[in-house]
């Protein structure tokens, strides 16, 4: 049987609050494993009142729930920001480097700024205290809130990319390696929205078949 979903709490934030760091930003990303489109990072500072929220790891929720709760995050947050790292940056820096770069850009946009961070195992080089436990998107309200913004914003971007890049199915699979995406790549070739440093895309680019020429 599947394990029951984990309910977030404020344990990691409280550790920072005890040290006088009351503006704690949760940081999370969406799209690291996708073959196309950006990796998207959100940073969110929630009010330090330790109240319960319906926010959960975005992977535990339906699309309509994610949209509803993301709107609530934007409404209640002290500050929030979302940043993208696009395929060119991912190919230049590698996916971890690009994720870090987007996270730092998002944090730089927070107003007021964060005094401490909780991230989903993203070990950023920052000048404020940081907690980076695994599965923080399921354990921390702040990181769950960030996961909702990152996921919904990236899904919106991928749906919009379906127009200028027809035939790939970005609106349905959001750039991940679904069978329909693989089939479209074989038929249409590699677009500028594909991550050329990723092994499946490199393999396609390395073949000589005319249909796999870059367009």
UniProtKB/TrEMBL annotation:
One of its GO terms (molecular function) is RNA-DNA hybrid ribonuclease activity. A divalent metal cation binds at residues 28-29, 120. InterPro entries: RNase_HII, RNase_HII/HIII, RNase_HII/HIII_dom, RNaseH-like_sf, RNaseH_sf. Manganese or magnesium. Binds 1 divalent metal ion per monomer in the absence of substrate. May bind a second metal ion after substrate binding. It comes from the Bacteria. Its main location: cytoplasm. Signal peptide: none annotated. It catalyses: Endonucleolytic cleavage to 5'-phosphomonoester. Its cofactor is Mn(2+); Mg(2+). Keywords: Cytoplasm, Endonuclease, Hydrolase, Manganese, Metal-binding, Nuclease. GO terms for cellular component: cytoplasm; ribonuclease H2 complex. CDD domains: RNase_HII_bacteria_HII_like. Residues 22-210 form the RNase H type-2 domain. Its EC number is 3.1.26.4. The keyword Nuclease applies. It is found in: Cytoplasm. GO terms for biological process: DNA replication, removal of RNA primer; mismatch repair. Pfam families: RNase_HII. The keyword Protein biosynthesis does not apply. PANTHER family: RIBONUCLEASE H2 SUBUNIT A (PTHR10954), RIBONUCLEASE HII (PTHR10954:SF18). Endonuclease that specifically degrades the RNA of RNA-DNA hybrids. Belongs to the RNase HII family. This is Ribonuclease. It comes from Deinococcus reticulitermitis.
């Amino acid at each position: 049987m599947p394990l029951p979903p984990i309910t977030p709490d404020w344990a990691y934030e409280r550790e920072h609050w005890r040290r006088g760091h009351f503006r704690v930003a949760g940081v999370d990303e969406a799209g690291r494993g996708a073959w196309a489109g950006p990796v998207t990072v959100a940073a969110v500072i929630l009010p330090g009142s330790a109240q319960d929220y319906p926010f959960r790891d975005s992977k535990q929720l339906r699309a309509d729930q994610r949209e509803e709760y993301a709107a609530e995050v934007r409404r209640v947050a002290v500050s929030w920001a979302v940043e993208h790292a696009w395929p060119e940056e991912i190919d230049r820096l590698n996916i971890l480097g690009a994720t870090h770069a987007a996270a730092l850009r998002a944090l730089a946009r927070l107003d007021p700024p964060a005094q401490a961070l909780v991230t989903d195992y993203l070990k950023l080089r920052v000048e404020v205290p940081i907690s980076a436990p695994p599965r923080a998107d399921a354990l921390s309200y702040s990181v769950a809130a960030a996961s909702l913004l990152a996921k919904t914003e990236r899904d919106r971007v991928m749906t919009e990319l379906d127009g200028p890049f027809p035939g790939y199915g970005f609106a349905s699979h959001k750039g991940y390696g679904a069978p329909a995406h693989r089939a479209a790549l074989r038929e249409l070739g590699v677009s500028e929205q594909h991550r050329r440093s990723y092994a499946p895309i490199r393999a396609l680019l390395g073949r000589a078949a005319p249909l796999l020429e870059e367009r």
